[in-house]
Amino acid sequence: MNRKNFLIQSSLAVCSISVFGNVHQEKDKFLSDCETTNDILGPFYRPKAPMTQDLTFEGLEGSRVEIKGTVYSDCDEVLEDALVEIWHCNTEGDYDNKSKDFLHRARWVTNKKGEYSFKTILPGKYLNGSSYRPAHVHFRITAENHQELISQIYFKGDPHINDDPWASQSKAEQRILPIQLEDTNGNLTVRFNIFLKKKTVSKKDKK
Asked: Which residues is 124 bridged to in the sheet?
């Protein structure tokens, strides 16, 4: 399946305004079972990526998309100043592992409403052994007094999900997300709400 057909099928797969299963509405917020599952870090993480919400640049190839969501503490408390890091490959499946430009890599902190957003492109794919990894975006989220979360998101309609050792796991189901048509101008959005767990305080730490 070529990239154009994948994008079309993924967009048509949208059937809900929420990216979660088991969703209920509470005070105009859509909440899930309050758990965001982890995924592998992968070999291409680079610390100290630029602090920016815009990963695009002149001459960039690929379909623009906005990845956004809200970070929650445990179940329903929005989390301000959580650091959200993302990174992904380009349309050819290559990561920028060395350049000073840190292409397709960024960091940003959530606002008072716990919201984050990044303007980027839909990533391509690369071979993992004899099969392709599905298109994916890496996440690393850290916040004071909370457990670090390392995860990935995938996209509905991607034919390589079932053969991928990580995306095919049951714990990844809620991270396989629809690509949504945001408005009448054809702008694309992927929404990924994130639930962080608070660090547990042991009896020894309380002393």
From this structure: none
Q: Is the pLDDT of residue 81 over 80?
A: yes
Residue 8 and residue 163: Cα distance in Å, rounded? 21
205 assigned to some structural domain: no
What tokens were used for 149? 């979360």
Q: Which residues contact 32 (CB under 8 A, 6 or more apart)?
A: 18, 20, 21, 22, 23, 174, 193, 195
List C-alpha distances in Å: 157 to 118, 135, 178. Answer: 22, 11, 8
The pLDDT assigned to 14 comes to 36
| Residue among 201, 190, 21 nearest 121 (CA) | 190
Tell me the CATH number at 84: 2.60.130.10
The answer to whether 139 and 149 are in contact (CB under 8 A) is yes
Mean pLDDT of the chain: 86
pTM for the model: 0.82
